[in-house]
Amino acid sequence: MARRHSKHDPYGHLHSEEEAPAPAVPCWLCGRPTGKAIVWHHPVPKSRGGRDVVPTHPLCQQTLIANFTNSELQRHGMDVEGLLANPSVRKFVDWVANKDPNFTATSAKKQR
């Protein structure tokens, strides 16, 4: 009786077909397609009872953390427009709009 699968790659039959790459998920904050690194951000912090997660760029998440406290994020919840009303966040989103999805940069320090 012949072996059905190679003992070196038991899942080789799953990789034989060419699969189309998954479509890029848009970032929750800036709306650009996400790149290689996706951060699953809690719009309402876990410490404040948040359970939902949304995809963001690492840089977008760092900007939110630098500009808002956990209680402010809890008040905004899933309301992106409320977050974009902050001048610093709006300035960041306008600046990053034309950047590559994999673009990285240093973020500002917390303004608390």
Structural class given helices, strands, pairing?
mainly alpha
Order of helices and strands: EEHHHH
The largest sheet, given as strand count, sense and whether it forms a barrel, is: 2 strands, antiparallel
Mean pLDDT: 84
Fraction of helical residues? 25-40%
β-strand amount: 5-15%
The general outline is: globular
How far is it from the N-terminal to the C-terminal residue, by CA? 70 Å
- List the strand order in the largest sheet: 1-2
Gyration radius over CA: 20 Å
Low-confidence stretches: none
* Tally of DSSP helical segments: 4
- Would you count the extended β strands for me? 2
Describe it.
By secondary structure, the chain is mostly helical. The chain is 29% helix and 5% strand. The chain is built from four helices and two strands, in the order E-E-H-H-H-H. It has helices at 58-67, 70-76, 80-84, 87-96; strands at 39-41, 54-56. Strands 1-2 form a two-stranded antiparallel sheet. Helix 1 (58-67) packs antiparallel against helix 4. The longest helix is centred in the middle third of the chain and has 10 residues, at 58-67. It is globular and about 55 Å long. The model has no long low-confidence stretch (mean pLDDT 84).
Produce the secondary structure layout.
Elements (H helix, E strand, L loop, with lengths): L38 E3 L12 E3 L1 H10 L2 H7 L3 H5 L2 H10 L16
Antiparallel strand pairs: 1-2
Helix pairs in contact: 1-4
In short:
The chain has 112 residues and is mainly alpha-helical.
Highlighted features:
mainly alpha; two-stranded antiparallel sheet; 112 residues; 2 strands
